[in-house]
Amino acid sequence: xxxxxxxxxxxxxxxxxxxxxxxxxxxxxxxxxxxxxxxxxxxxxxxxxxxxxxxxxxxxxxxxxxxxxxxxxxxxxxxxxxxxxxxxxxxxxxxxxxxxxxxxxxxxxxxxxxxxxxxxxxxxxxxxxxxxxxxxxxxxxxxxxxxxxxxxxxxxxxx
Length: 159
Fold this sequence. Notes:
By secondary structure, the protein is an all-alpha fold. It has helices spanning 20-35, 43-71, 96-111, 115-144, 146-154. The chain has one domain (18-150).
């Protein structure tokens, strides 16, 4: 049962839209690529694996978003959560949308053949963990208490 938080406290306090934590490193990597070109993968493998990763990332992101909407809670992390979603892709990862962002970034790095962009993946994940997930988890623990802590014990953060 969620606790009643005052309206000004009923949000995780995320300071930046989460997709930007991957978009900004991608843009920086493209700038680096312009000045110091790199290459790391060639041939059909690049196109097949890159496309599969982008597709999987989009599917995971959209699946997580839709699962939350259908469960009756807002997937936008600036808004209050009304429940802990534990079904669908949330049975496997607590953060399917963020895992989806990482997979898309990895796939794009392969498609554009940029070793610099490979660095955007761990940078985006660390930023996501520190700037977004840490705040979200503190908020969910405050709001849902033991229900969220039990979910956290059962399901891994990433995969």
